[in-house]
Write a structure and sequence with these properties.
- Helices cover 72% and strands 0% of the residues.
- It has 18 helices and no strands.
- Helix 3 crosses helix 6, helix 8 packs antiparallel against helix 9 and helix 11 packs across helix 12.
- The protein is globular and about 70 Å long.
- The two termini are 15 Å apart.
- The model has no long low-confidence stretch (mean pLDDT 88).
């Protein structure tokens, strides 16, 4: 089940809200847990059992930590069991096919064996399970004694299938006791509608253009068309994923949870390092806390710093998908961040802001080519088209016609990806407060109307991050 579906918005969510708030406080966690399991089973009925087994094993291991001194030998043994189980499940379901195909291609062998279907959201709930177990092992948080509460932490449907990745310590108190007032509930609705509009009105529509370009023969793509296409994907993936994060944060608010922001206008960044501080913040924080810092972080020698950076970015790339293009994508950004940290250091700060911004966008856009094409040959063929190598024309009539038809959508997307809409909204709220309230209510009703109309009329509703 996806958030941007008629069934979720007009059936599942209203029924869940009614049942949740009509139940007593002691039953609300159970209602939300059952709803979350139903939500997951709607698309992945076969893998609900896998997730439940994971919940029980990690819950039990964390309770064993609580009976012993922190970080002793016995606890290390329990931690290893948890790591082997969680990473083993992730490796089997997500990377088994990649490993087999890589081995087969290296030896030119024919290896038979089916690739297991990828359970939706396994990367997200595995990382949450690991962070919980590791934090209990370190003594940063106490083990949760209530299995229902821990199960809700892992299965909570607002962030189950595509994040943001939520640390247990951030919502520990909210899991046990939370309150929602009308103001927060209405804010949650507005945030959800904002994310829904991002997804169905912006990401899906600009994604149609990229889909058309991607499926064109290389001989028919001009240099301008190649750049227009990959910029469309750059906007699509932002509104697709940030829209889902907005919906998750909004849904959390509606049930009394406060999730941290996952995106902070990444395309206004003035360096690649800054981009990754603004993009998928919860994932970057996870790798920093549980991989980069334990390796020594940046407080090590030059060569160990290089090692740490490339390990983290190699793993970040592979987290996104079981294909070597994702590893290449991660190493690409790792290399750029290494150059900024070690080579440029503070010299970038003397560059004009416009130059830093253009530099950042240029390399981010190129990075999305590595992300989108799984075949290395396709990656370098498309890069050649972008840089005018072996391309038939700089711009052809088709490119001009397509750009004219999409130019308004491009402009809307570019503006929506910047902080300006929020700044304008704050200005009107502070200057015309009475008019602002009415206008905002009308605005969100319009968003719901057009988003619903799109979902009724269109069958194009992909979600990029579901495959991770």
């Amino acid at each position: 089940m996806v958030f941007s579906s008629l069934f979720f918005i007009f059936a599942f969510l209203p029924v869940t809200v009614i049942l949740y708030y009509s139940s007593g406080k002691h039953l609300r966690n159970i209602v939300l847990l059952v709803a979350s399991l139903f939500f997951y089973a709607w698309g992945e009925p076969a893998y609900v059992l896998l997730m439940c087994i994971s919940i029980i094993i990690n819950y039990y291991i964390a309770t064993l930590f609580g009976r012993n001194d922190i970080c002793n030998r016995k606890n290390k043994f329990y931690l290893i069991i948890s790591l082997v189980f969680n990473l083993g499940c992730l490796a089997y379901f997500k990377y088994f096919g990649m490993i087999i195909s890589t081995i087969a291609s290296m030896g030119n062998w024919k290896l038979n064996g089916g690739t297991p279907a990828l359970p939706i959201g396994i990367s997200f709930y595995t990382f949450q399970s690991l962070s919980y177990v590791i934090d209990v092992y370190r003594g940063k948080t106490k083990p949760q004694k209530n299995l229902i509460i821990y199960a809700l932490y892992i299965t909570m449907f607002p962030q189950l299938v595509a994040g943001p990745i939520v640390n247990y310590g951030d919502i520990e108190r909210q899991l046990a006791d939370r309150r929602v007032n009308l103001k927060e509930f209405s804010f949650g609705i507005r945030r959800f509608l904002c994310g829904l509009a991002k997804k169905v009105l912006l990401a899906n529509n600009i994604g149609v253009f990229w889909s058309n370009v991607k499926n064109m023969p290389g001989t028919e793509i001009s240099m301008v068309m190649a750049w227009a296409g990959i910029i469309a994907f750059t906007l699509q993936i932002y509104f697709d994923f940030s829209g889902y994060s907005d919906m998750a944060i909004g849904l959390g608010k509606m049930f009394g949870f406060h999730f941290k922001e996952n995106f902070q206008y990444p395309y206004i960044s003035q360096s690649i390092s800054e981009f990754w501080q603004r993009w998928h913040i919860s994932l970057g924080s996870w790798f920093k806390e549980y991989v980069y810092i334990p390796l020594g972080g940046s407080r090590v020698g030059k060569w160990k710093l290089i090692r740490n950076l490339f390990i983290v970015w190699f793993l970040t790339g592979l987290w996104h998908g079981a294909s070597w293009n994702f590893a290449l994508w991660g190493l690409y950004f790792g290399t750029l961040i290494f150059i900024e940290k070690v080579v440029f250091r503070k010299s970038m700060m003397v560059w004009p802001k416009a130059i830093r911004h253009i530099y950042s966008l240029f390399f981010v856009v190129i990075g999305w080519v590595f992300f989108e094409f799984t075949n290395l040959t396709d990656i370098f063929c498309f890069l050649r088209l972008m840089f005018g190598i072996k391309v038939n024309s700089f711009a052809d009539n088709q490119a001009i016609v397509e750009l004219k038809s999409y130019i308004i959508l491009y402009m809307v997307c570019i503006i929506a990806a910047s902080p300006w809409p929020k700044k304008v909204s704050l200005y009107f709220r502070n200057t015309y407060s009475n008019f602002y309230r009415l206008a905002v209510n009308i605005y969100y009703c319009i968003l719901l109307f057009f988003s619903t109309a799109y979902m009724v009329a269109s069958t194009y509703n992909p979600f990029i991050y579901f495959r991770f």
